[in-house]
Design brief:
This protein is an all-alpha fold and 97 residues long. It has one helix at 4-95. The chain is 95% helix and 0% strand.
Length: 97
């Protein structure tokens, strides 16, 4: 027969072993719950980022088109102004004695 001290140590070791086993199983269960949620969240975030990138790209293209339109309008306005100034200058010379 074994002495009471040895039996107490074995009993204490078995209880500690059960506690660590429960802790490991609990951690594994928590991990199995968290990983799918994290995966779904990552996919959702990736889709949102992609959507925002596409929207930003479209807005950039639209801004470029508008900028070109403004440049053309300014160019034609400057030509029209130059023509008016040229015509006014010619008329002034014609009106001079």
């Amino acid at each position: 027969m074994t002495d009471p001290h040895t039996l107490a140590l074995i009993n204490q070791w078995e209880r500690a072993h059960r506690r660590w086993k429960r802790l490991a199983l609990g951690a594994m269960a928590a991990l199995l719950l968290v990983l799918p949620v994290a995966g779904v969240t990552a996919v959702f975030q990736w889709q949102q980022i992609r959507t925002e990138q596409e929207r930003t790209e479209r807005a950039s293209q639209e801004a470029e088109v508008l900028r070109d339109q403004v440049r053309r309008t300014l160019y034609y306005s400057q030509i029209a102004l130059a023509e008016r100034e040229l015509a006014a200058g010619i008329q002034r010379r014609d009106n001079k004695p």
